[in-house]
């Protein structure tokens, strides 16, 4: 009988590793996707804050609802609450943004490398720039304070008082060094705040008197020139 031929063992061929192109592509795409989601999230948060500050300024805290802000932004109320869990949290964030910007400017007054006259000029310029570029934020803050600061008062105390004391110390040092006249630093800063912030908070009154739709660049330039002159005159040493 013929013996059955045994099949030759099949050669084991090493399989080529799968191309990493697909996995590399996925790995590269994932971070981009996450980054895009983060950008979208940041943009939506910025849109919410932009609309919220205007509505709070126009209607006040009590007259504003989360639903009205969501409608202006173009999102659902539930979606907005994902970013800001309550109206009060959103309101406090709006005020945080305003106050933190102002405090950054105040902090610059303690810069010992610059002359007090130069520091005060820059401070006034920055305060007026804020009033011109972000009037709604200034008005929200003003309304909160005029209403007794019932929601944000503790934050004002916590944030403003330490920095105010620091700035007062700088003024007192300048006075002792003979760099400026002996003025009351606290009331000088109160006066600067009042003069610069009024160009946002009371701009409607100003435009009515000036018979124009809004304050223009010339108005702010002239205000800056006058306020700087007044403040520098107040601190100048009389010979």
Describe this structure in words.
There is one protein chain. The model is unreliable at 1-19 (pLDDT under 50). The chain has two domains: 28-85, Arc Repressor Mutant, subunit A (Orthogonal Bundle), CATH 1.10.10; 92-235, Tetracycline Repressor, domain 2 (Orthogonal Bundle), CATH 1.10.357. Helix 1 (21-59) packs across helix 6. The chain has helices at residues 21-59, 66-73, 77-83, 87-107, 116-133, 135-146, 153-176, 185-201, 203-210, 217-235. The protein has 239 residues and is mainly alpha-helical.
CATH class of the largest domain: Mainly Alpha
| Residue windows where pLDDT falls under 50 for at least 5 positions | 1-19
CA(first)-CA(last) distance: 135 Å
**Total tally of structural domains:** 2
CATH structural architecture of the largest domain: Orthogonal Bundle
Q: Give me the CATH fold name of the largest domain.
A: Tetracycline Repressor, domain 2
Tell me about the largest β-sheet.
none
Structural class determined from secondary elements: mainly alpha
Tally of DSSP helical segments: 10
CATH superfamily of the largest domain: Tetracycline Repressor, domain 2
Average pLDDT, rounded to a whole number, is: 87
- Radius of gyration of CA atoms, rounded to a whole number: 30 Å
The fraction of residues assigned to DSSP E strands is under 5%
Query: Could you spell the SSE succession in H and E letters?
Result: HHHHHHHHHH
Number of strands: 0
> What's the overall geometry?
globular
Helical amount among residues, as a percent range? over 70%
């Amino acid at each position: 009988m013929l013996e059955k031929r045994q099949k030759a063992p099949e050669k084991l061929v090493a399989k080529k590793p799968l191309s990493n192109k697909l996995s590399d592509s996925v790995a590269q795409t994932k971070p981009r996707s996450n980054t895009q989601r983060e950008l979208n999230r940041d943009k939506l948060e910025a849109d919410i804050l932009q609309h919220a500050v205007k509505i709070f300024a126009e209607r006040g805290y009590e007259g504003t609802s989360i639903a009205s802000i969501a409608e202006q932004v173009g999102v659902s109320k539930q979606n907005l609450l994902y970013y800001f869990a309550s109206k009060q949290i959103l309101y406090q964030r709006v005020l945080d943004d305003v106050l933190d910007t102002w405090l950054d400017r105040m902090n610059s007054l303690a810069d010992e490398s610059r002359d007090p006259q130069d520091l005060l000029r820059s401070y006034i310029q920055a305060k007026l720039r804020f009033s011109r570029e972000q009037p709604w934020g200034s008005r929200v803050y003003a309304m909160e304070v005029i209403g007794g600061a019932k929601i944000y008062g503790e934050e004002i105390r916590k944030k403003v008082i330490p920095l105010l004391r620091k700035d007062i110390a700088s003024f007192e040092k300048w006075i002792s060094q003979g760099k400026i006249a002996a003025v009351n630093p606290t009331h000088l800063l109160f006066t600067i705040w009042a003069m610069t912030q009024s160009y946002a908070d009371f701009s409607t009154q100003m435009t009515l008197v000036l018979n124009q739709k809004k304050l223009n660049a010339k108005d702010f330039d002239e205000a800056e020139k006058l306020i700087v002159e007044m403040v520098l005159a107040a601190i100048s040493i009389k010979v």
